Amino acid sequence: MTSRKLGVDEGSRELGLPRPIVGELKLDRSNALLADARRLIPGVTQSLMKRPEMYALGSFPVYLETGEGALVRDVDGNEYIDYICGLGANTLGHNHPAVVRAIREPLGNGVLHSLPTEIEVTATRALVDLIPGAEMARFFKTGADATSAAIRLARHVTGREKVVTIGYNGWHDHFMFDTPGVPAVLRDYTYRMPLMAEAEEQPLLDLIAQKGSEIALVLLSLPYKRIVSAEFLRTLRETCHAHGVLFVLDEVVTGFRLALGGAQEYYGIAADFVCLSKGIAAGMPLSAIAGPREVMSRLAELQVSTTFGGEMLSLEVCKAVLGEYRDTDYIQRIASLGKRLREGINEKSKKIGTPLRVVGYDAIPFFLFADDLPTHTKFAAQFVGAMATRGVLLRRDVSFISGVHTQAQIDFTIDAAHDALTEMAKRGAFEGSPAGARS
Asked: Which InterPro entries does the entry link to (predicted)?
């Protein structure tokens, strides 16, 4: 079956470019709301990654008002091409027809009923049909719900208590054992292992070999600034299984981005089960774990329960967007556009002589200025501010390609990056940095 092009059928339209921002970025309404929020909301907003300090406070919008496709408008009326994409959740952009229909048409049936509804069954069937090796799944609301359920399930299945976490897996106690408010004893149950460099691969394998008899699972969120090899992942899986450790992929971010079946399909590997969120419902609040019946069926023996896991509208959207991923060129489109962005910006940066390189997976571009975090952050904060004044919203590191970004918007972003980097270089922002050292 030939895939239809995503974003041009069924009433969708490819939108153009943001209106030019003339002069300084006007943020009067954003700043007024921010002042109120500082008095009313601990941490200003609901997600750490949305706090204004994570971008470029003063030269970056704080509050958005609306979005259509890959364009968003802030509360002051400024328009931008959006690569933040709801922290990766808005895989189909904003206000996509498939999402709108999946909410509007069944809304009259209710939002949450007193007993299970049919959509729980049909959405689960749609999910397991896409995830390699999956025969059963359970729904939750946030990625941290799913990864926490994964840890409890793995401990139950293996009879072991310690876990290995790699990357960011959520805010719950077993992941954030070294942060305020968490009992210190929990650090004895979690090995947090880095995987940002190739040199960190062998220590992970050594840990499993040495402590495997105590470990229930390795929960792996793939790093974004480098592409690990399939050979390493196969070795990691084999090492886990040799010691009775479950190999679990945290695909909260990578799910429905690297391939239709996620990292398992992309790398040709089989996880014991996977954790999913963000793209699973294109921005609606939903998460899940999915895997073979042998493991997943054991979840019924546990106290893992959520009132809102059966909320109907998110499940309707899940079913609809999984169909969009399956029946369109979505996966090929985001990879192709991401490649164009990466190659275009890297070429511009090299010619100017700045240290910026776009690295990682094409659908999840990582804007990297330096390997050491303080240097990277210093440059990245200036860069995302300069890009905002040119009508482009980026994060300081990981950004996202949505299925409705257009080639014209990618090319606009490349040109904006050229202008922003040129401006930074002229004012001496990169003096003393090893510009062009990375290839």
From this structure: Aminotrans_3, Aminotrans_3_PPA_site, PyrdxlP-dep_Trfase, PyrdxlP-dep_Trfase_major, PyrdxlP-dep_Trfase_small
The residues facing 137 across adjacent strands are 290
Superfamily designation of domain 28-96+329-426: Aspartate Aminotransferase, domain 1 (3.90.1150.10)
Number of H helices, E strands in the chain: 12, 13
Q: Please state which of the ranges 45-49, 78-82, 235-239 shows the lowest mean pLDDT.
A: 45-49
Nearest alpha-carbon partner for 226 in 167, 181, 143: 167
Encoded tokens for 254? 């990578």
Instruction: For residue 267, give the amino acid letter.
Output: Y
Helix/strand/coil (H/E/C) assignment for every residue in 70-111: CEEEECCCCEEEECCCCCCCCCCCECCHHHHHHHHCCHHHCC
CA distance 178 to 207: 20
Residues 14-23: b if buried by 16+ CB within 10 A, e if exposed: ebeebeeeee
- CA–CA dist 254, 264 (Å, integer): 10
Residue for token digits 């496709």? 69
* CATH 3.40.640.10 domain residues, the chain: 112-310
Whether the Cβ atoms of residue 315 and residue 139 lie closer than 8 Å to each other: yes
| Model pTM score | 0.93
Closest to 130 measured CA to CA, from 332, 322, 1, 328 = 322
Helix (H, G, I), strand (E, B) or coil at 163: strand
Tokens of 159: 């009879």
d(Cα 268, Cα 270) in Å, to the nearest integer? 7
**Nearest by Cα to 319 from 281, 279, 274, 275:** 281
Four-point Cα dihedral 262, 264, 268, 272, nearest 10: -170
Q: CA 415 to CA 399: how far, in whole Å?
A: 17
Q: Where in the chain is the domain with CATH 3.90.1150.10?
A: 28-96+329-426
The model's pLDDT over 228-268, given as tens digits with 9 standing for 90+, comes to: 999 999 999 999 999 999 999 999 999 999 999 999 999 99
Pick one of 3.40.640.10, 3.30.230.10, 3.40.630.10, 3.30.210.10 as the CATH number of 112-310: 3.40.640.10
Nearest-angstrom CA–CA distance, 301 and 153: 9
